Amino acid sequence: NKALTKFYSQARVQVFATSGSGSKTAHKNRAADKLLQVAEAEGVDMWTYLETHFPSNDYTFCDVCSSPGGWSDVLLKRYKGVEGWALSLPIDGCYEKCYYPSLMREERFHAHWGTDKTGNVYRGDNLTAFSEAVHNRVWGNTEGEGEGQRGCALFMADGGFGIRKDEQGLHMENYQESLSHRIVLSEILSAVLTLVPKGCLVIKLFDCLTTATVSAVAITAALFGRCYVVKPASSRIVNSERYLVGMDFMGEGVTADKDKVIAHLRSLHEQGFEDDETVQPMGDGPVDDVKAGRSPVSPDSFLPSTCVMGHSAFCASMTDMNTVVLERQVLGLKTVCDLAYCLKEKGGSAGRDRGRERGGRRGPPSQGRERDRGQSHNRGRDTNRGRDTSRDGYRGRDHRDRDRDSRGRDQGRRQRDEYDSYRRSDRDRERDRERDRRDRDYDRRDSRGYDRRDDRRERDTGYEYKRSRR
């Protein structure tokens, strides 16, 4: 329903305040908030794990398909000794637009574009070149025994496709998981090629219902000592987004053969897809082929079905995870849609607070009009309903001036803002005068806290003054 789209957005922000655009913290975007929530999730605690196994905090991290670099910005600000390597598609063929300008100026951040300078993770030679560039950097304690480590301690990937509506205006989000199989496989292969033992992995997924996605989680669980699927609070509850977290890469208890896994993933990456090395624009994926039953986007599974279905504990955990996440998603969708229909019936009047949820103007929208009406009521009275007029910004003005302002709402608001700026300037000047007075008092005191002026008086008059501490 096209007419319901704008009311749906209003209802979603009102029901789930964290689903609005922009970061709710001091970081650059909402993706940074998601990374922090994933790393600090109950039972995960990835920051503590990294600080325990890499105490020098001078490791290398990889940031793949994460333009414009919100995740890299978090790591570089959190740890002063880390170094980041990034691989992503340039925006409109421009490399400078791919990442934040502050990241491009950062000496510890290195943007890599692969052998063909496209940053396309679908090409195996680009992944190989990126892995070699990361391994050329030696980090860790190189003093004494050992030669340090080569590779990354943390691999992050936030790749995905934006799904547009079809010709009839219908949403195609149900196909997002199938369309993302190829990019998920590319990210897992790149992670296995670059991670060092004990390293960590964070990859974005869309649903975990197809056998290809389930097998991708199974491969991660086989390579890492700990494996989680996390739905952060900043990720909209009404969509299928979630994050795959792997910790303790090739640690104790991991029996998988890394070389065989790499060979298997390379074979899938090179032969399991159609011979198409180009990346389509966002939202122009092969939706029609998926509708028709064809599967050009990925093979049915990354592993034989017997390898996955033979592990009852893994299948049970996947079922429990899907049940919890999908039940919350269905409940969230029902709540948002019900409110959207209510907003449509009321003409959207209940959505006036949307701007405040997104960090806009504080206070109710009718605050200025209520204040104007309240001032108009006080005509001929000596007091303004007990309000301090000096605090209200109308110093030296009578009620007739205030009534005149209330006739035009926009004019009154501009004048109030102007007087508020004057009032703030008065406060700033008073604060500066108080600070200067304290500085002068401090300069008059000696090391014992006595007033130095008493010494000058005794010297000038010969009279002994009683000294007192200030």
Automatic annotation (TrEMBL):
<feature type="domain" description="Ribosomal RNA methyltransferase FtsJ">
    <location>
        <begin position="29"/>
        <end position="249"/>
    </location>
</feature>
<feature type="region of interest" description="Disordered">
    <location>
        <begin position="274"/>
        <end position="296"/>
    </location>
</feature>
<comment type="function">
    <text>S-adenosyl-L-methionine-dependent methyltransferase that mediates RNA cap1 2'-O-ribose methylation to the 5'-cap structure of RNAs. Methylates the ribose of the first nucleotide of a m(7)GpppG-capped mRNA to produce m(7)GpppNmp (cap1).</text>
</comment>
<dbReference type="InterPro" id="IPR002877">
    <property type="entry name" value="RNA_MeTrfase_FtsJ_dom"/>
</dbReference>
<protein>
    <recommendedName>
        <fullName>Cap-specific mRNA (nucleoside-2'-O-)-methyltransferase 1</fullName>
        <ecNumber>2.1.1.57</ecNumber>
    </recommendedName>
</protein>
<feature type="compositionally biased region" description="Basic and acidic residues">
    <location>
        <begin position="368"/>
        <end position="470"/>
    </location>
</feature>
<dbReference type="InterPro" id="IPR050851">
    <property type="entry name" value="mRNA_Cap_2O-Ribose_MeTrfase"/>
</dbReference>
<keyword id="KW-0539">Nucleus</keyword>
<dbReference type="GO" id="GO:0006370">
    <property type="term" value="P:7-methylguanosine mRNA capping"/>
</dbReference>
<dbReference type="GO" id="GO:0016556">
    <property type="term" value="P:mRNA modification"/>
</dbReference>
<keyword id="KW-0507">mRNA processing</keyword>
<keyword id="KW-0489">Methyltransferase</keyword>
<dbReference type="GO" id="GO:0005737">
    <property type="term" value="C:cytoplasm"/>
</dbReference>
<dbReference type="GO" id="GO:0004483">
    <property type="term" value="F:methyltransferase cap1 activity"/>
</dbReference>
<dbReference type="GO" id="GO:0032259">
    <property type="term" value="P:methylation"/>
</dbReference>
<dbReference type="GO" id="GO:0003676">
    <property type="term" value="F:nucleic acid binding"/>
</dbReference>
<feature type="compositionally biased region" description="Basic and acidic residues">
    <location>
        <begin position="348"/>
        <end position="360"/>
    </location>
</feature>
<dbReference type="GO" id="GO:0005634">
    <property type="term" value="C:nucleus"/>
</dbReference>
<keyword id="KW-0808">Transferase</keyword>
<keyword id="KW-0506">mRNA capping</keyword>
<feature type="region of interest" description="Disordered">
    <location>
        <begin position="348"/>
        <end position="470"/>
    </location>
</feature>
<keyword id="KW-0949">S-adenosyl-L-methionine</keyword>
<dbReference type="Pfam" id="PF01728">
    <property type="entry name" value="FtsJ"/>
</dbReference>
